[in-house]
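cron nightly-structures :: item 1 of 1
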Amino acid sequence: DFWKAGDEMGKKPLAALLLGGAAALLAGCSAAPVYSTPSLPSPASSAAGEGRAPEPAYTVTLSYVTQDKIHIHYPRISGLDDPALEQKINDLIAQDMWAKLVEGVAQHYADEPDILDKLLLDIDYQVTQQTGDILSIVYRGPGRIEDGMFATNTIETTTVDMRTGALMTLEDFVTIDEALVRRMKQAAVVWHPENADTDHERLMEFIRNQLDDSFIMQGLKEEQPYFSFYVTPDSLWISVPVSHAGGDYAVVQIAR
C-alpha cells in the first residue's frame, strides 16, 4: 500500500526525500540551454478581486528553454512603464525557474556519472495571480530518468513582488508555525492537479497522520522539494510531499 509507504516520510532527512522525489528527475545537461520566446498566448491568469489589488499594467507571454532532454515553459512579462524593473523581473523569473527545476538538483547528483544525460523533464506553467502587486506562477509536469520504472510529478513555484522585482516567500503571506500546519491539516480543499482520480479524503488523511508538524514546518522554511506555494486572489495554495501512488505531492488551500 503506497499510502502506507510514506509512514516514515515525516521523519526522513532531506537527502532521503531528494532521492525519492522531484530531485531525482531534475538536473542540468551537457549542452547549453536554448531560450526562445515564441508568439504564443499565455495561460489564463487570475484577475484581482474587486478592491484587492491594482490591475496589471503588463502582459504575460510564454517562453521556453530547451537543453538536451529538458523542456521548460516559463513566462515573461512586457509592457511595464519601467524598463529596468521589467528586465529585473524577467531575469528573476528565468533564474528562479532554472535554479529550482535544474541547478539545485544537479548539484545534489554531481557525483553520479552520466546522470545528467539520462534525465527527461517536460514542464509547463500557469499564472495563478497577475496583478499590479503580485505575479504568482506554478510549474508542473512529469520527469523521469531514461529507462527508469516510472515518471514522477514535479511542482515548483515563483511569486514576484511586482512593485520591487523581489522574489516573495511564503512568510511574506503567513507565519510558518504550528498554527499554519493546523490550518493545512484542517483544510477543506486538497487536490492533485495531475491525478483527478486521487481519493482526496485519503490524501488529507495521509497528510494529517503521516507528515509530522515539524517536518512540514522545516520543509516550508527551507523550501525543500515538493514544499512550495502559490497564490490566487482569495487563497494560498501550499504543496507537500505524499506517496507516489498519491501523486508525489498534494496541494492544500488556505484562505487569505
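cron nightly-structures :: done
The first strand starts at residue 34 and ends at 36.
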